[in-house]
Design brief:
465 residues, alpha+beta, 4 domains, 16 helices, 31% helix
């Protein structure tokens, strides 16, 4: 009989329910630790299946396929919440399954999750259950405006939720939700969105990753900055809250807590995710261990090392929108982004998920940058994450080099002869700035800016006045 206190030996098989990018990165981490991985979920040649040792293309309710899957693995885990409880119960009756089906049951429903947090003393915004248009009206009287209406189940990346202000069409808001029950929450006037990934093993050992500062765009995580620019006290509080949740739920594996940090310094739980989290992807390249490696260690009953982050990191999500290019006729075409230029950024680490069809708002990969390159290419990262536009860095143009040369040397009054204009005396830095403003322009044909008389400024010695 298996001793379920001892570590699972290397070379054994870990089963992952779900076959997306989180399963893919989990499998890659498991292979580095010398474990094999089977993945289970509908679809062939999936992101996780491409790197797994075996891929089961089957519906989550396929009991025959689940029986075969469970017969070949030593432990099961999952990579996203929207899995039928019956599937994990089936697996848990045959092999250790982490996190437990009970944890999934709580976190895959917003009402159960917020009720659990509230009953266990964790801070959350006011909320109330809504099951009809009539109940929504009464709930708004209690919660007040503004508020946010969210489906109780199966919501992610902003799907299944709507803000309600005074004057909002309540009938349309309820009908647009398309769900039998929802949660109405008080709107939080937050200053920052934070998240913490926490790993816990069967022995109760817990390790938190650094606190992430997350920026969303169109309800999808766009940019994560780590460590978050908050006080040590707030950072410790966010990690302590997350560890307490992990212990109270007896999580084995990972759990991620998302927080709202209000402008008055209060910290409120937003959501829980019992799996690897998008904001934690930075850890692959920036930390001593990744969230995926700690997930593997936790479910295989191994010790969890302390996590360190030597340098700051910024992670930007890459969506299918980046592939879309529009011509002058307005038609969109699919163009492969310039990956070589992306990889050439200093400190950049590109991760693509193996998805064949880029679609708008579909997560296709992510870019993590660590170290000094963050300051140099901050605008590039933010434009990528927020607007899904990548402008490869380029060498300075000739007039830009001229500008640097002129500003780098001490100012000495001089004069130049400009054809068609006459002799211009430049007797002050302000006059020099004005000269640049007058003689750097963009042509009507849309070509790049250039000097009107570049040879007279860049190539002629200054004539002292």
């Amino acid at each position: 009989m298996e001793d379920r206190q001892m570590p699972i030996p290397k070379k054994e098989v870990i089963g992952v329910v779900g076959n997306g990018q989180l399963g893919r990165m989990f499998a890659q981490a498991a292979h580095e630790l010398d474990y094999r991985v089977w993945v289970f979920g509908p679809g062939k040649d999936s992101p996780a299946g491409q790197v797994a040792d075996r891929e089961f293309d089957a519906d989550y309710g396929d009991s025959a396929a689940l029986a075969e899957f469970s017969a070949g693995i030593r432990v099961a885990t999952f990579e996203f919440e929207n899995i039928p409880r019956s599937t994990l119960d089936f697996l848990a009756s045959r092999v250790p399954t982490h996190p437990s089906p009970d944890v999934l049951y709580i976190t895959q429903n917003r009402l159960r999750e917020k009720t659990w947090l509230h009953e266990n003393g964790f801070p959350v915004a006011n909320f109330v259950l809504v099951r009809s248009r009539h109940e929504l009206e009464g709930a708004l009287d209690y919660i007040g405006y503004p508020a946010v209406l969210k489906t109780a189940s199966f919501g992610y990346d902003g799907k299944g939720q709507a803000r309600i202000d005074k004057g909002t069409d309540i009938d349309a808001a309820w009908a647009g939700l398309g769900a039998p029950e929802a949660v109405l929450e008080a709107w939080v006037d937050f200053g920052m969105e934070l998240s913490v990934v926490c790993a816990r093993n069967q022995q109760g050992e817990t390790r938190c990753f650094p606190v992430c500062h997350n920026t969303h765009h169109h309800h999808i995580l766009a940019v994560t900055q780590v460590p978050a620019a908050i006080s040590t006290d707030l950072s410790h509080r966010a990690q302590a809250y997350t560890m307490q949740v992990a212990q109270a739920m007896k999580v084995v594996g990972l759990i991620t807590a998302e927080f709202f940090l209000t402008k008055t310094g209060d910290m409120l739980f937003n959501e829980l995710a019992p799996r690897p989290h998008n904001s934690g992807h930075f850890s692959i390249d920036a930390c001593s261990s990744s969230q995926f490696r700690h997930h593997v260690l936790a479910v295989t009953r191994r010790p969890l090392p302390t996590v360190t982050q030597p340098e700051p990191a910024v992670m930007a999500n890459i969506l299918g929108d980046l592939w879309e290019k529009r011509g002058e006729d307005g038609r969109a075409t699919v163009v492969e982004p310039p990956w070589d230029a992306v990889r050439a950024l200093p400190g950049a680490h590109l991760h693509l998920y193996g998805k064949k069809e880029p679609r708008a708002r579909r997560k296709m990969g992510h870019l993590t940058m660590v170290g000094d390159g963050i300051k140099t290419h901050r605008d590039t990262l933010w434009k990528l994450g927020m607007d899904q536009i990548f402008d490869p860095p380029r060498d300075p143009l000739p007039w830009e080099k001229t500008d640097v040369l002129l500003t780098a040397r001490p100012f000495v009054p001089f004069a130049i002869d400009v054809s068609g204009v006459g002799r211009l005396e430049v007797d002050s830095p302000e006059a020099l700035a004005k000269l640049r403003g007058q003689y750097i322009f963009q042509g009507a044909d849309g070509d790049a800016p250039r000097m009107f008389a570049p040879s007279l400024v860049a190539g002629v010695e200054q004539q002292k006045v």
